[in-house]
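User: Fold this; tokens only.

Assistant: Input:
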Amino acid sequence: MSIENVIETERAGHVGIIRLADERNRNALSNPMRSGLAAAFAEMEADPDVRAVFLTAKGRAFCGGGDFRMMRDESDPWSSHQRFKRTSRWLTDLLRYPKPIVVGVNGPAVGGGIGIALIGDVVYAAESSRFVSGFLRLGLIPDIGVMYTLPRLVGMARARAFVYGNETWTAEQAMEAGLIAGTVPDDELEAHCLERAEAMAALPVEGFGLAKWLMERSYETSLEEMMVHENLGQSLAYSTEAMREGLAAVREGRDADFVAASEREPANRIARKRLSTTDY
């Protein structure tokens, strides 16, 4: 499926695949790219048969950052404000996405392209890829959530050096800094990421969503508040079919079938019925 002519989507079992596909424009964050990306993730979140998402890109670049034409033509304060207000909505949804996201960075991730990569729960990069700060070169500050995600992953000292020094990191340097989970030979990236996404899709997606919701709060929340959130999250986890399946599997000495357990959840049965009458 093609969305806005700049996003391609497909399914591989229980993994939804999203590819940035505006190769001629370096997969830059044009308005169609932003809206198409948000729409693709929203469709896959609504589909109970999609249990994990793999995000990558076509062409030689993962994402070239801001779209230069849009930046030139829509740089007045009101246009910029409206664009970033829309961005804050869909980006927040992606950072809090309830299903596992595996990202495969297949080429340069520049400026805001780093922010797109960092929506992933697990991020792998091709050995030839690189991460380019680039913001200050244009007289701009980091956006697309980079000021939020980058310090949490690499620490404040490294984040400052990267942004203020307008640095470029190789894939190896990004891994050493803690920005990504690992590097992969270029021709093995997609297979490796798909394998990782398939493994995550076999896990209890309900518990994953709750764990992600809780962990996101760990830096700004007091211990007492975290214990309240943990209480609520675990109480919900105990109520799921996935928990019953996991416990039964351990007691019976067999592998758990969390996919089948999810299909027994009332909410997923309702969602599946709704999707069967919806034309995407």
